[in-house]
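User: Can you help me understand a structure? I only have the sequence.
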Amino acid sequence: MTTTPTTAVAPLTTSDAEVLVAAARRAAEAADVTVSITVLDAGGHLLAFRRDDRAVLISGETSTRKAFTALQLNAPTADLVDAVQPGAPFHTLPTALDRPLLFIAGGVPVHRDGRLIGAIGVGGGAPEQDHEFATAAVKTLA
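Assistant: Let's start by predicting it. Here is the structure, written out as tokens:
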């Protein structure tokens, strides 16, 4: 039996990460919101990070945790908020992994050719704003 080789999906590169950070930053600045932005590759490794000097220090940790959550669950964190209420499917998940998850809007997975290649997390604005900034950034790679 002959198998047909499959074409590998190009990974998320540092250049892609820079594009994501720049797009999220532009969206946040247009709304006059100070944020931190984190981009992770498919393995959860940090590719890019930006924190404005005016941003609250914790916003950097928040953006990283949002990106990690979106990556691990392959879903925008905005879609997961209801799933983590007591008795819901993901209620005990934060203690099951070696890294904490964060179920607040602002984390968005990044896909290429239908496959998960990374995630972006934005923290510092209102959750809805962070989600909007991250989603706008991901659209720039499409």
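Now, to help you interpret it: The chain has a mean pLDDT of 86. The beta strands are 36-41, 46-51, 107-112, 115-123. Let me know which part you'd like to focus on.
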